[in-house]
Amino acid sequence: MNTEIQPEDSSIETSDSLSIKEPHDIEQLQESILEAQYFDASSMAPLSAASVAALTRLRAYKPPPFDAVWNRLPLSRRAAVLVLLFADRKGDLRVVVTMRANTLRSFSGHAAFPGGKADTLEETPFEIARREASEEIGLPRDDSKIPAPFKIEHLCQLPFSLARTALAVRPCVAFLHVDKTPTASGRAASVEEDMMPRLDAREVAAVFSAPFHNFLKMEDEVRKEDEVRKEDEGKLPGKKSDWYQGVWVQWMETSWRMHNFYVPITNQKVSKPKVREGGQAAIAENLEEEEEAGLTRYKIWGMTARMLVGGFNRAYLSVWHNTHVGDEDLIAKLQEMGRLGEKVPGKKDLSDEDINTARVKLKDEKFGGKI
Predict the structure, then answer these.
(1) What b-and-e string marks burial along 29-57, b requiring 16 or more CB atoms within 10 Å of the CB?
(2) How far is residue 47 from each of residues 95, 221, 284, 314, measured CA to CA in Å?
(3) Which pLDDT does position 18 carry in this prediction?
(4) How many CB atoms lie under 10 A from the CB of residue 321?
(5) Range in 1-15, 136-150, 186-200 the model is least confident about
(6) Cα(97)–Cα(89) distance, rounded to whole angstroms?
(7) Which of 68, 76, 140, 294 can bridge 145 by disulfide, Cβ–Cβ 3.0-4.6 Å?
(8) Which residues lie closer than 8 Å to 81 by C-beta, 6 or more apart?
């Protein structure tokens, strides 16, 4: 799912530190270090200290209360995405991303997290996200059916975002890891090497991954061992600055950042549909043609990029550009205005004017009429 709406906060901070400031943070980090062996992909590639700390913070994160609003939303306004993390062979976290097929009615050909709309009012956001991930990339929705030794831990839920298609979208963060059971070859299993290639792009054109921590950076993060490679295989393409392009824009008297990330694909395995039909085949073939012609990076932008930047600073204690995360105040105000009722086919849906009106009302309430 990839959708886009304008964020509202213009506060800017620029800290890339991984500092642990509070005593309880230190205690949590120490506890996580003791737990790290459980999450190790192998004894030779333990989770990095930054990854251990990031997972600790995500486990501890609790989003603002939103159940009252969610429970009043009709089925046609509910959606969720799965933000699936795993550790690479160096112990650094990566996130699973898909390329949407051309057959999809909205945002075809865009990079997105696995996800989609609710099927029933009883589904929780995590259930929606897991079901959609099963349908799109073949990740079993039932934990008991995930092939050994792989396991999934639900970490947290991030604040809702408002999609351009007027859906309330909940990002659900999970960690795909392995236990220490060795494979038939005698080595420990690895999500990166053993599980990722199993993900079958069923309803999407491709499945790839991106370095999680890099979404708080303006350049590719290059590890020392990658810098000294003698062979071209596995090296990052182009310049480090090719990773990011962004621009500040003004909207509703607010400055906000449009993010475009370009994820290298020459140093990873990209999974594509085994059986291709319709638009899914078209975009997969287009991707292959572009790769043969020299395409070395996939673009992540829109709401997917906003979720990565705006929400994942919680994992690394780093705030980059806009500090506001999600659109829950806006969603609640639009619901209060009666603009998030049941979707009616053929009828005009949420407009920019509706959003502008809701933002003005929110500012008026916040500043007591002194806007």
Answers:
(1) beebeeebeebbbbeebbbbebbbbbbbb
(2) 15, 17, 33, 18
(3) 37
(4) 21
(5) 1-15
(6) 18
(7) 140
(8) 1, 112, 113, 114, 115, 116, 129, 132, 169, 170, 171, 172, 307
What are 208's two structure tokens? 């790839």
Q: In a 3-state reduction of DSSP, which class is residue 293? A: coil
Structure tokens of 120? 């029933």
83: buried, middle or exposed (CB in 10 Å: 19+, 13-18, 0-12)?
A: buried
Residue owning tokens 């408002």: 162
- Quick one: pLDDT at residue 42? 41
Nearest to 49 by CA among 26, 33, 25, 28: 33
Contacts 24+ apart (CB under 8 A), 93-96: 93/51, 93/54, 93/55, 93/211, 93/212, 93/213, 93/315, 94/192, 94/209, 94/210, 94/211, 94/212, 95/209, 95/210, 95/212, 95/308, 96/137, 96/176, 96/196, 96/199, 96/207, 96/208, 96/209
Contact 162, 331 (CB under 8 A): yes
Question: Residue 160 carries which DSSP code?
Answer: P
Q: For 337-351, what is the mean pLDDT?
A: 91
Question: Which domains does the chain carry?
Answer: 12-224+231-323 (3.90.79.10)
Range with the lowest mean pLDDT among 24-38, 187-201, 306-320?
A: 24-38
The pTM assigned to this predicted structure is 0.80
- 212 contacts 102 by C-beta, under 8 angstroms: no
3-state helix, strand, coil in the chain (%, to 5): 35, 25, 40
Enter the tokens of residue 360: 């003005």
Letter for the amino acid at 209? Answer: S
Residue 365 DSSP SS3: helix
Instruction: Write phi, then psi, for 122 (nearest 5 degrees).
Output: -85, -20
